[in-house]
Design goal:
single chain; mainly alpha; two-stranded antiparallel sheet
Length: 122
């Protein structure tokens, strides 16, 4: 069995994680392109652009950060696989568990901040 076929949790293999990161990246790229094309038609003057561009930038930033978190998580899993292959211990050290938790919390906080930032005010 290759390292890519190793089950990392449940029925999910390492290759499945890599494919998910890749698929999400391709899907998001298409979504961003489609959104920009749709919004371009709505921009009639500089005032419209001033309102739309920050929304597009926030959306793109959020998606990049989400991808970054997934990539960091895959890297941690890969380190655990290598360590497990060498030592037989597939458990994550506390420092890596804390890093995963920190990444998850950062992602949630950034998403909330961006969502609140883009909400129209009365």
């Amino acid at each position: 069995m290759s390292d890519f076929d190793q089950v990392v949790f449940g029925k999910k293999k390492f290759s499945d994680l890599l494919k998910e990161v890749y698929d999400r990246s391709i899907t998001k790229e298409k979504q961003i392109t489609d959104m920009i094309e749709q919004l371009r038609d709505l921009i009639q003057n500089t005032g419209d652009a001033v309102m739309m561009v920050p929304l597009i930038a926030s959306y793109m930033d959020l998606n990049l950060k989400n991808d970054d978190v997934l990539i960091k998580m895959v890297a941690i899993v890969q380190k655990a696989m290598v360590r497990g292959k060498e030592t037989g211990d597939f458990m994550l050290p506390d420092s890596e568990k804390e890093e995963l938790l920190r990444l998850a919390q950062e992602g949630v906080a950034e998403k909330k901040a961006l969502t609140n930032q883009n909400m129209p005010t009365a």
